[in-house]
Write a structure and sequence with these properties.
201 residues, Alpha-D-Glucose-1,6-Bisphosphate, Chain A, domain 4, 5-stranded antiparallel sheet, 5 strands
Length: 201
Amino acid sequence: MTLARRHARAWLGLAVVALIVGCSEQNIRDAISAINAEFQRDYEKTVKENGTHVVSAAPKDAYDAVLAALVKMGFVIKEQSRELGVISAEAPAPTPLSKGEFDQCAAIDLPRARDIIRPYLGPLAESFKFDAKGLDTVMTATIIGAPAGSEISFTMRLREVGPPDTKFPRRDYPPPNVLHCGLDKTWDAVNRELASIQKRG
C-alpha cells in the first residue's frame, strides 16, 4: 500500500514546543525524516505480506464484496471501474478503525516512534502522540482474475484534508501496527461480504 504524505497534526504541537525549548528546525525536520523512513519500510513490508489476498470467487463477486465492505466501513467511493477492477475510496482517519481501535493499535507503535525521534529531539520525544485529526484515509483496491479465483490488493494512505498548520510536512505513512489493524479489519469485512454473496448464490 506508495504514498507520499505530510506530517500528522501532533507534530504541530511538537514543533511549537520544540522551538520554545530551543530545538532547531533542522532537528525537527530530521526527526520527521527519520520516522517517515522507518514507517515507509514497515509500510512496504506490510503491504507485501498482507496487502494482497487471493480469494476463491469470480472477479465480479470479489469486486462487489470489496465495494460493499468499503461502503459499510464508512468510506466514500471516489472512483470505480468494474471493467478495470479498480476502486478508490476515502474517509476521515482513522477509518477503517474506530477511535478506540486506533488508540489501542497506535499505543503499540508509540514507544518505537519515540525511540526513533529521541536522538533528534531529546526529552521532547516523550510528548509525541499519534493523532488522526486533519487527515483522510485513502484506500485503493484492485481486483483481477487469478487461477484460484480473484486477486484483491489494497493500498492505504493518509492525506491532508486542509492547508497545513505548519511548514513542516506531515507523516507519510500510517503507524505500522495501525496499518496492520486496518488491513486486518478490511479483509474481515471483505470476507464477510464474499460469504454473503456466495450464500445467495
